[in-house]
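Support request from a user on the community tier.

User writes: "When I paste my structure tokens into the form, the page sometimes reloads and wipes my input. The last time it worked, I copied everything first. Here is what I submitted, just in case something in the input itself triggers the reload:"
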């Protein structure tokens, strides 16, 4: 029996161990999509305890607690921090097979030197150990980033953001890690959702001109893209309930826009027409700027209406969406390809049954001069577990070129989540090592090193133009 989470965790063959320890473990991290705060990085935030650095804001952990019957008071409510942590610690041992169990213990081991297991009985020991460790100089936000060997961080930012913290980080030569904004214009596109008119008013104020037509909304977004580019932006990101492609002519679009701006009810069909037009506009602008476009879709947001009204969005109640998006996605890509304005694009679906579809779609729209111009993004959200990662990697290898993959991201709000890159790298090396030992790929050290280093770092560095 193997010991729990030793140095060869998830590595069962000698080739897998060689690939991981020799080529993957020490590769710098390019975390090109996450939700950490640039302000907290600039101010070098310190954390008092595991609630602040671990439980606060982490809806992955909240779902674990809810599934264990924990009262909401101990999750997002007013219970004392130590009691909230206790409830999580008591639930965690039941998470066998869940990536949360692995993530937590990788983080406890790497950042706090804890070799045991977290449960209700050890919660106090872990709590006190973490409080003591977090007081050390290298456990600030910047310290955690540096000891994690992070080279690049792509945050997630709204067009109305001043990006003041990114500017300050650009001017701060003492840090050495690039922190770039990512353009996330979802609120401008979600014309059918509550709060859209108020958001347009805010965008108008930031732009300095009234947005009373769709044409002016495009102009405002273009102006904000210029602002983002001046602050080092490398990519955009779109969180879509489902992929859309429903083109319409200019007059019809302006009428829909005017109706929405006047407070009229917008049908799903009309909202998809506006989103299509804005996606086409944005994609063409990204292509001109050399940005990467990320498309995240097939998420059903906030199905629990009671908890949505109580807690708001992004609190752990979203689910995998049932939307049919194949024709819409291919229609969007085809239009952009035909007009020669398809940017480098990463496609993520929350529905893992889309793996093979995405892997064939990317092959239909690749471009010359860029290795893997259209990418199948890493297993996302509910799929960033061992099985989900394996299935995404195998599908990509079966139907495309795995060696061109841009690899892992954290998609996290926690500064301790960089161990997710380690988790991914171990799974990758185990998979590749098995192919080699089974005689399915030659034991060619140079070729294997290029693939592993490429997926762990080099491909993303080239793709996001960091070199």
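"...and here is what came back when it finally went through:"
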């Amino acid at each position: 029996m193997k010991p729990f989470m030793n140095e060869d965790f998830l590595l069962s063959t000698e080739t897998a161990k060689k690939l991981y320890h020799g080529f993957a473990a020490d590769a710098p991290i390019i975390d090109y999509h996450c939700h950490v705060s640039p302000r907290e990085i600039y101010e070098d935030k310190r954390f008092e305890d595991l609630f602040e650095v671990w439980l606060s804001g982490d809806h992955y952990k909240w779902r674990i607690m809810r599934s264990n019957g924990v009262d909401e008071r101990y999750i997002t409510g007013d219970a004392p921090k130590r009691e909230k942590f206790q409830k999580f610690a008591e639930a965690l041992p039941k998470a066998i097979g869940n990536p949360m169990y692995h993530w937590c213990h990788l983080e406890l081991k790497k950042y706090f030197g804890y070799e045991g297991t977290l449960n209700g009985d050890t919660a106090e020991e872990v709590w006190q150990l973490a409080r003591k460790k977090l007081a050390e100089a290298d456990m600030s936000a910047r310290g955690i980033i540096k000891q994690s060997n992070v080279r690049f961080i792509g945050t997630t930012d709204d067009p109305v953001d001043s990006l003041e913290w990114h500017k300050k980080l650009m001017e701060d030569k003492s840090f050495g890690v690039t922190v770039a904004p990512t353009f996330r214009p979802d609120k401008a596109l979600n014309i059918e959702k509550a709060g859209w008119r108020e958001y347009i008013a805010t965008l108008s104020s930031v732009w300095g001109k009234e947005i009373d037509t769709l044409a002016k909304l495009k102009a405002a977004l273009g102006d904000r893209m210029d602002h983002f580019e001046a602050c080092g932006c490398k990519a955009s990101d779109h969180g879509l309930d489902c992929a859309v492609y429903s083109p319409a002519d200019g007059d019809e679009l302006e009428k829909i826009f005017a109706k929405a701006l006047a407070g009229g009810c917008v049908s799903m069909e009309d909202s998809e027409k506006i989103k299509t037009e804005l996606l086409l506009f944005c994609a063409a602008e990204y292509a001109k700027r050399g940005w990467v476009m990320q498309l995240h879709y097939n998420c059903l947001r906030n199905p629990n209406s009671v908890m949505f009204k109580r807690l708001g969005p992004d609190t752990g109640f979203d689910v995998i969406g049932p939307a049919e998006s194949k024709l819409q996605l291919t229609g969007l890509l085809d239009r952009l390809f035909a007009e020669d304005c398809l940017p480098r694009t990463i496609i993520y679906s929350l529905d893992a049954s889309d793996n093979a579809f995405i892997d064939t779609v990317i092959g239909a729209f690749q471009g010359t001069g860029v290795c893997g111009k259209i990418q199948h993004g890493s297993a996302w959200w509910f799929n960033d577990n061992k099985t989900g990662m394996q299935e995404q990697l195998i599908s990509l290898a079966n139907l495309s070129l795995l060696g061109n993959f841009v690899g892992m991201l954290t998609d996290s709000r926690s500064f301790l989540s960089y161990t997710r890159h380690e988790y991914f790298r171990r799974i990758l090396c185990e998979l590749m090592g098995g192919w080699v030992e089974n005689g399915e790929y030659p034991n060619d050290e140079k070729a294997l090193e290029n693939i592993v280093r490429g997926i762990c770092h080099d491909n993303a560095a080239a793709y996001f133009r960091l070199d």
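Agent notes: The reload is a front-end session timeout and is unrelated to the input. Residues 304 and 317 are 7 Å apart (CA to CA). The mean pLDDT is 96. Escalated to web team.
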